[in-house]
Request: fold
Amino acid sequence: MESVNTVYPYSSQDAVDIARAYNISIANEALQTPAVTTSLEEVQNNSSGIAGADSAFVQASPGMLVQYTINSILGTAAVIVLERKSRTLQRLLASSLNITQVLAGHALFIFFIAFVQQSLLVVAGQLIFGVNYFQDPAAIWLMITAFSLWITGLGMLIGVSAKNSEQVILFSLLSMFLFTALGGAWFPLEGTSELFNLIGHLTPGAWVMDGFQNIIVRGLGFQSVLKPAGILLLFAMGFLTSSLIVFQVERRKYL
Reply:
């Protein structure tokens, strides 16, 4: 008001008071309907990604589950190699057992080890680290079953392909590093490029991680694991079929 009065002086004090009252009324009206408003609200964590998760264990727990389950085939596949080298397989086939029964026994052994190991890791993750596996137990154990079937196929393929124990170690470690690194077991695939994500989902490990994290991270239901589990079953059939083909081709060398 004083600055305006200096340049354009009012005719009287009454004019100054009237102008001041008018300006105050305009300001009050403007405050009632401001052009910009601010508000405070509590931030809710509704992110569907790993970055929005409350705990780092939701990435580390299933990641370690995938890594160490794949690594477990090192011991189980080695049994098949040792049986071939020691001629135990030949003696088994000389008994009343046929080749299908012998291979089925090895497959069940690998499946049992993978299934029990994953179950123990899931229970430990829930009870010790607070990872919400039990949000949908049926979905989690469907993923465990599908993953164990694929591990069975991979273990059988390594067991019938490897020539010695050193190759079992080599193939097992290569499989572990390949399927865990590309599958998002070490870091979330959603934080990588679109191309890397696409390449990762060409491997079984990525679908295992998707299935587990659909439950423990994204809070989705049983339906969300049907696609990952189905794809894992396809991988399992492919690896098991490959192991049977390799065994039949190399059967004479084994025996």
